[in-house]
Amino acid sequence: MTSRVACVHCGQDWLQNYRAKGNGESFWLCPECESLWLESQDTSEETDLYLSEFLESRGIGWSDIEKIAYP
By CB neighbour count within 10 A (0-12 exposed, 13-18 middle, 19+ buried), where does 58 fall? Predict the structure, then answer.
């Protein structure tokens, strides 16, 4: 995904790319509603995954993820 994509869940913000620092797993996140899409998911479709669930399932916290900057 190279162009800006609005969150299909809330429509209030653009999806941003993040990764887990420990294992490098990347995902797309809506900063507004915290909906989350794994790299394998289609970001144009609804998701039922949220950041809190993702972090808990991996045993990590906010400090263990980082935003991936694109030029």
Answer: middle
Both structure tokens of 69 = 């900057």
- Of the chain, the percentage scoring pLDDT greater than 90 comes to 90
* pLDDT, tens only, 42-53: 999 999 999 999
58 backbone dihedrals φ, ψ, rounded to 5° = -105, 0
Q: How far is CA 51 from the centre of its chain?
A: 7
The residues, ordered by sequence, that sit 6+ positions from 1 with a Cβ below 8 Å of its Cβ are 15, 17, 28, 43
SS3 state of residue 60: coil
Q: How many CB atoms lie within 10 A of CB 12?
A: 11
Residue with tokens 């899409």: 37
pTM over 0.85, yes/no: yes
